[in-house]
Amino acid sequence: MAEERELAHFPHLWYQEFYTGNNMGLFIKVKRIVYTKQTKYQRIDIFDTYDLGRVFALDGITMTTDLDEFMYHEMLVHVPMFLHPNPRKVLIIGGGDGGSLREVLKHESVEKAILCEIDPDVIEAARKYLKTSVEFDNPKAEIINENGAEFVRKFKGEFDVIIIDSTDPTAGEGGHLFTKDFYKACHDALKENGVLSAETESPVYDYGWVRMAYNRIKSVFPVTRIYLGFMSTYPSGCWSYTFASKGIDPIEDLDEERVSSFQKPLRYYNAEIHKAAFVLPNFVRELLEPKKG
Amino acid sequence: MAEERELAHFPHLWYQEFYTGNNMGLFIKVKRIVYTKQTKYQRIDIFDTYDLGRVFALDGITMTTDLDEFMYHEMLVHVPMFLHPNPRKVLIIGGGDGGSLREVLKHESVEKAILCEIDPDVIEAARKYLKTSVEFDNPKAEIINENGAEFVRKFKGEFDVIIIDSTDPTAGEGGHLFTKDFYKACHDALKENGVLSAETESPVYDYGWVRMAYNRIKSVFPVTRIYLGFMSTYPSGCWSYTFASKGIDPIEDLDEERVSSFQKPLRYYNAEIHKAAFVLPNFVRELLEPKKG
Question: Whole domain around residue B20: which residue ranges?
């Protein structure tokens, strides 16, 4: 026990996340290592810090911090959830920390929310060490440990909302969740008025990925729109999400009264933010426009 | 000459900017040190990097990078410039890199733009080493090296627009530019329909400063509103600006046609972004609300 305590305490330990190749990134002083494991799929690290609370990283890429995970999870989840007129059956692909599940279950219309996380060790670690896992035992929640890209193929016209809460395309098994085949399978697994959201990386440092994901989703769905949100501890702090649907418009079809009468606490999302998030700075508009020639 | 080249090249040198106390921040690999000087006021560092182009820092705080300085300068400058019906005389306080001056002079109505930068070494370094200084020799520009907080007191009802482009309150002489007396002097130096913008730090890591600056400006101006923009290399990537006026409303009084017919290239700002920037996430709304009790 004494040895374990000593292992957990490093007075001079720093975590470094590289943003672009090996040339820049974020450094965070570590107060205490809480959990670390090389799983079949990836390296999991959970550690306590001085300014961000508990940090959860996969393959050296920050997934959640206590300080700002709400920014990411609220924008990924509530945009599609409020656009669907009555979301009852929801599929979350990835998202093993549980933050997206927590936000989905704030909507009382939800009858079933399936969380399909490929790595059972992420679920186990989140359950033990991350506050985001608060709804893992909710009777409406079902946790599946399968490859999301394969799991979604089992369903046709089944879900009201699909949320793609993946890691980066280069980390762990994240790459499977950025292919056209996968997006097509998501399309087919949605009901006729289904909606989807996906995290699609930083338009500042990862603009190739943003463009790729957007174009692939657009080739599959009739309605596809990028939206943006602040996310402090992700590269550049400017994060893109892609909304897609079989017809629902992300602005026209928002019921603002439903948002303003929502009873659960929200720290980022509101009806005005929803609409403002779809307004893009010129440099983001330009990176999405098809190239000439 | 050979020695100078050797000094400038460090294959294993990293720049670190601390965001919050000493516990986290940004690291950037340095390709080449371009310029470095301890002036009467602050430490200036200019260096080339692999992903951000040239970086300009004061007291270890990043002021501009080639990659993203447009985000900051366009949002600081064009919001007040497009809100004023006919901006002819403009005062920029701070902003010695010249980026704000460049944006101000994109507006053809401008007859005179005074750049009041306290540190002549910043001006000299920017002129030699930073692209942002492109308009230093524009005949409409006048560069003054005085304390901005004192300089602005010389004027009554003189300016159409004042732009406060300061460093952090804790860096160099930045603290002078966050006081109530200073904001009052700015108010008095503006004409009857004058408008002002100020950079007011990150609502994620520096929320005390955001609240302080906002409340001080609000105690002086009839109209005061916070707006937000992405700024990749500033702490949290979520940057706040404060707009203030003697009556002009930041949303109602925007002439969108004037924005869409603007002939100069803009990489961030557009009329929709202008309006969207004033929409605040719940956590920012809450930090600005007066405390109860």
Answer: 2-65
In a domain, B79, yes or no: yes
Q: Indicate whether B40 and B75 sit together in one domain.
A: no
Residue contact A205–B283, C-beta within 8 A: no
Task: Give the bridge partners for A28, in sequence order.
Answer: A15, B24
Residues 6+ apart with CB under 8 A from B238: A230, A232, A237, B202, B203, B204, B228, B230, B231
pTM assigned to the model: 0.95
Tell me whether residue B293 is in a domain: no
A-contacting residues of B 17-56, CB under 8 Å?
Answer: 19-29, 49-52
- Here the CATH number for the domain that contains residue A92 is 3.40.50.150
CA of residue A242 relative to chain centroid, distance: 11
Looking at the fold, whether A36 and A135 belong to one and the same domain comes out as no
B205: its two tokens:
């890591």
Q: How far apart are CA B68 and CA B71, in angstroms?
A: 6
User: What pLDDT is stored for residue A168 in this prediction?
Assistant: 77
Based on the fold, state whether residues B74 and B59 are members of the same structural domain: no
Residue of A nearest to B23 (CA): A29
The answer to whether the beta carbons of residues A90 and A163 sit under 8 Å apart is yes
**Catalytic annotation on B121?**
no
- Render pLDDT for A176-208 as a digit per residue (tens, 0 to 9): 778 999 999 999 999 999 999 999 999 999 889
Q: Interface pTM (ipTM) of the complex?
A: 0.94
For residue A193, the SS3 value is strand
Total of domains in chain A: 2
Residue B262 is classified by DSSP as -
C-alpha dist (Å) from residue B255 to B111, B223, B260: 21, 18, 9
Residues of chain A with Cβ-Cβ distance to B279 below 8 Å are 272-273, 275-276
